[in-house]
Amino acid sequence: MASPLEQFEIKRFLPILVGNADLSFTNSALWMVISAGAVYAFVVWGTSRRAVVPGRLQSLVEMGYEFIASTVRENAGKDGMKFFPWIFTLFFFILAGNMLGMIPGAFTFTSHIIVTFFMAICVIVAVTVIGFYVHGVGFMKFFVPHGAPAAMLPLMVPIEILSYCIRPVSLSIRLFVNMMAGHTMMKVFAGFVIAMGLFGVFPLAITVAIYGFEFLVAFLQAYIFTVLTCLYLHDALYMH
Amino acid sequence: MPGRIRAHRASLRRLAAACALLLLTGTAAALRGALADDAAPASTDRVVEEVAGAEEALETGHAAAAEHGSAGMPQLDATTYASQIFWLIVTFGVLFWLLSRKALPRVAEILEARQDRIAADLDRAAELRAEAEAAERKHAEVVAEAQARAQTQMKEVADRLAADTARRIAALDAELAAKLKDAEARIAASRDAALAELRDVAIESARVAARRLAGIEVDRAAAAAALDRVTGEAA
Q1: How far is the alpha carbon of A159 from chain B, nearest alpha carbon, in Å?
Q2: Domain that holds residue B38
Q3: What's the CA angle centered on B27, arms B22 and B29, to 5 degrees?
């Protein structure tokens, strides 16, 4: 029986070397391209008719648009709408990655820590840059808790800074672990189906159940990543 | 604060792009450093050898990963990181560019057009309603005016009739009074005439009575004087 982790292996389809860096086109890259293409095709095809009374696909696109718009407005505030295209791309790219990864044989690029971590780092760096841009040096006050006694500040400010720096770690690990654990679990139970012969119907039933559950997780994790990004953006724009 | 964000939006975007680039180059540099242990040191005049060395390094990395594969997680194979980050930036960047330039404005346009249409329809409905209300007001005004006019006309007629009646009654009264006065005068005249006749009768009666009873011929003047004396005594 193949290892349940085999599905996460990176396979090089087209080796590309730039200097010493290996930028090969891999199965991960392929599914990133497919995901991006799917999102773009979804939005463009959906709105191609520009109907005043929308059809089914256009309604879906509009719902997605309004959904992200309301998420940004509620979590990042009105000024957060300046960054709407960024959040929209983030959500739908992750969602497409998670959902397309549910196709048997497909590769889930969000199940790799480096991908989620890089996205999280970019989010935090961008948010921090925005924070300093909007508030100048005053953004440092973000790390000073409101109403804390002055004597406690030497202890609390480093803790605040530490918790701020932990954000990309928790943000990326949450997404990566959820995607990886779900896929691994499915593979393990699917392996039991063959191994248990006739009694394999039980793990088969569980696999089906987990499969359905995984769709929920795929959506939820994309949403959580997006909402947290919006909240961090809110912190940067308004400071608490 | 929002103004500041709006004003510096372009530069903000440039800054974010720069940050992403910095991160990418940083990761690439770190990777190159990691690989440099095995590969030949970088040098401009030995590009071919360098590439060959890098490929060699890649192969060894591959082998190590494959060895690891059965035991460790593929996620921890650092030789794949550069490729994943690179393709992540490329795909995400292209998707972001396409969506923010073309697709999302189109969706916003559609939603806005619908909003405008609905707002326009609502405006038109409000306009029509205002028009209807104005018409209704006008109608009520006209009705009220007509009623007022009818009322004044009716009052006029009634007044005129009343005045007419009063005048006729007054004329009738005057006529009746005149007739009454006439009649009274006539009655008084006939009475006076009757009374005078009565005197004549009395005088004649007295002369006749005197002639028949006493055989005295009394002339008319004496009889009248005697009558006057008697009626004066009686009165």
Answers
A1: 25
A2: 2-113
A3: 90
